[in-house]
Prior knowledge:
By secondary structure, the protein is an alpha/beta fold. About 35% of the residues lie in helices and about 15% in strands. The protein has a single domain (about 5-280), classed as Alpha/Beta hydrolase fold, catalytic domain (Rossmann fold). Helix 1 (about 25-30) packs across helix 11 and helix 2 (about 75-90) crosses helix 3 (about 105-115). It starts with 8 loop residues before the first strand and ends with a helix.
Amino acid sequence: MNELSPAHTVYVLVHGAWHGSAQWAATQRALAATGAASVAVDLPGHGFDAPLPTGYLLPGQPHLRTEKSPLATVTMDDCAETVLRTLARVRPHHRRVVLVAHSAGGGPASLAAERAPELVDALVYLSAFVPAGRPRFSDYAGSPENATARGRGLTLGNPEELGAVRINPLSPDAAYTEELRRTHYQDTPPGRFGRWRSALSTDLPLALVTTPLTLTSPRWGRIPRTFLRCADDRALTPAVQDLMIREADRAVPGNPFTVRTLPGSHTPFAARPGELAAALLP
């Protein structure tokens, strides 16, 4: 059987900001139908066990804009170590390990691959941060190429004081929740989005946005990598996705990205998981 066969492959799936392992479930089912195994990771402070601000689920959501995040001490190293532990567990059981990162998950996934390239046979960035050209996620999110991105009014409070980038998925403000949908899930119908937003957490540790990362050609740069562009992404625009691709290819010219484009939003695992699974296959 071909070494690239799905039957020989395990996909390690790393979510982005405010998400968790559960959001990959439909994509995992589609991968399983091809014979591929997969493991979805919960980064520290994410998923159904994520700690929430104390007032988030109370009437009126008291102190939501000011309460220090319980994730303020979570570091990029903490998140990368979580990915590394998963990679180390699956490596002995599969011929091919593919590390897939979405959005802000690109930072921890990249650092894990840099530290242990022997655990990863291929990298896939799904509209994800690639720190090869610029070291911080904020360097790209705040770039001119991302100036047309939506959602800048979704953040609550002062991230530096909170220690996190905080959103309010359960906001009673219909305009706010519609902007959240239009930013990240615009091709998910409003009726279905209510279920998706209820699974989002409030806080992204600030370290995932501000920690500088260094990738090297002999380690991260030796791993074959694919970038899955999201053509109508309103959170990380196609222009900034292309900027990350260009700058990474300039940093490691001997191993450029393979680039594929998916239609639709920043979250294809919600709107078209079957297409996403197909795009992950060799």
